[in-house]
Specification:
- The protein contains 20 helices and no strands.
- By secondary structure, the chain is mainly alpha-helical.
- It is globular.
- InterPro entries: Carb_Metab_Trans_Reg, XnlR_reg_dom.
- This is Xylanolytic transcriptional activator regulatory domain-containing protein.
């Protein structure tokens, strides 16, 4: 194997002072705002985020934070504070106080990060971006996509894409490099699915092994912590499966670097992954049990989103979507519909603890994708007396509205913004479970001037094929 060699380059642009004044000043502003509850927000980050999305070795970070805080990147600390704010209702102490101005804090954190990107980018910048992009509420698709691209570029420049197992560095640093690389990969691939943009990390360009539970947990870790770590490890391997499917979706060149896969080949990839799981994680995946484990609900939604993507790719490969006017869908279309319904059922089953737990922000798009697929399926069945897809889509909207109102669940926002008005305009508000759509005079879509034509085009033609408007 060829050795990995690094060059030494200055971190700061020529003529720029070493003092990162802007990032440090932004950190000071945030800390003054959060004082005297700073430590409570720090605890929330490790309880809610780091347990499920292990950015730091908690013990090492806390030692550095309390003993040598000035040596930690100010941008990193700002991002950590901002990321923790969405969980403030989970703390009895914070819940009894004032409501934090989350947008103000995020603006300060973003300015600190942008300053560090210009002045002295490094590993801390990659970590800051990971925390930033996983922050909620997510408000900027282009901003997050650009940040992920920057993280990928920095990671490659820092050699994070290479296996450090045989390097002459400490075990702690090896584990950190592996963990940070896979967090970047997770963001890249799930943002690719959510935003409809090609992958920036390709499987042939890195050799970093998957993290292990032992890499993520200290010697005295509890059963609770090890269970959360095992779910994260499964998320990384599922993300690798997602990459195989996204390579298929975004393959537009006639000279593809990846072998073409059939519908059965694609199915086998997911089946092999399911069989590779430990029994407890496999039960979570197949049956949806043990969702109270930290990160389990987020992981379950990730699995269902990958499964829906698989079904839609298979539907496209079979040309089954050509039957746009048939009231009886093909078996492959029914498989895809069932996958979308499974996402709805998961959302309906979530309780307060799970809703207030960790969620990757881009999962909001997975919920929207499932709902839009159900709406398209239902509109093609408008002559059917029992239009299950439309009923399930309405159930999804009702559930998301309840979650938003009762628990301030921002993951619901994307779907509500894209689908709730459409559901209402289609006259579905008063539908009963056994309502006869054909007898009720279901609205003629061609004559309904209240519906945006572009929305109807997406709904009616979004499944004709990957090259003709496949909507992720």
């Amino acid at each position: 194997m060829r050795p990995v060699r690094f060059d030494v380059v200055p971190r700061r642009p020529l003529g720029v002072a070493t003092v990162q004044s802007l990032a440090a000043s932004k950190c000071e502003v945030i800390e003054k705002y959060l004082d005297p509850d700073i430590e409570e927000y720090l605890n929330l980050f490790f309880q809610k985020v780091n347990t499920c999305f292990p950015v730091f070795d908690e013990a090492s970070f806390r030692d550095a934070y309390f003993l040598n805080k000035e040596k930690i990147s100010s941008a990193l600390i700002c991002s950590l504070y901002a990321n923790s704010l969405v969980y403030w209702r989970s703390s009895p102490k914070l819940r009894s106080g004032r409501t934090p101005d989350i947008r103000f804090i995020w603006n300060q954190a973003n300015e600190a990060l942008n300053s560090e990107l210009f002045l002295s980018p490094g590993l801390s910048t990659v970590i800051s971006i990971i925390i930033n992009v996983s922050g909620r509420p997510s408000t900027s698709m282009f901003g997050n996509g650009g940040m992920v691209g920057t993280a990928v570029a920095l990671s490659n420049a820092l050699g994070l894409n290479r296996d450090p197992s045989s390097w002459d560095i400490s075990p702690l640093e090896k584990a950190l490099r592996i963990r940070i690389w896979w967090l970047v990969v997770i963001h890249d691939r799930w943002c690719s699915l959510a935003y409809g943009t090609p992958l920036q990390v390709h499987r042939a360009q890195y050799d970093v092994p998957f993290p292990s539970v032992d890499d993520l947990c200290s010697t005295g870790a509890s059963t609770y912590q090890r269970a959360a770590a095992s779910i994260f490890v499964a998320l990384t391997t599922l993300t690798d499966v997602l990459a195989r499917y996204l390579e298929h979706v975004y393959c537009v060149s006639k000279h593809a670097s990846y072998a073409e896969m059939s519908a059965m080949d694609l199915e086998q990839v997911l089946s092999d992954w399911e069989e590779s799981l430990a029994d407890d994680v496999r039960r979570l995946v197949i049956r949806g049990t043990n969702l109270d484990v930290p990160g389990a609900a987020n992981f379950r939604l990730a699995y269902l989103a990958v499964k829906l993507l698989l079904r839609r790719i298979q539907l496209d490969l079979s040309n089954g979507s050509a039957q746009t006017e048939e009231s009886t869908p093909s078996p492959l279309h029914m498989h895809a519909q069932r996958s979308a319904e499974d996402i709805t059922h998961l959302i309906q089953e979530l309780d307060e603890t799970q809703l207030q737990g960790f969620w990757i922000p881009v999962h909001a798009s997975s919920i929207t994708s499932a709902t839009m697929f159900l709406l398209r399926s239902g509109l093609r069945m408008k002559g059917n007396n029992r239009n299950t897809p439309l009923h399930v889509a309405k159930d999804m909207i009702n559930t998301l509205q309840a979650h938003r109102q009762r628990f301030d669940w921002d993951i619901a926002d994307n779907c509500l913004a894209h689908c709730s008005d459409l559901v209402e305009k289609l006259g579905m508000d008063n539908l009963q479970t056994e309502y006869d759509l054909s007898a009720s005079g279901f609205p003629d879509l061609a004559e309904n001037d209240n519906i945006d034509p572009s929305v109807l085009e997406d709904l009616l033609f979004g499944t004709r094929g990957l090259s003709e408007g496949f909507v992720l």
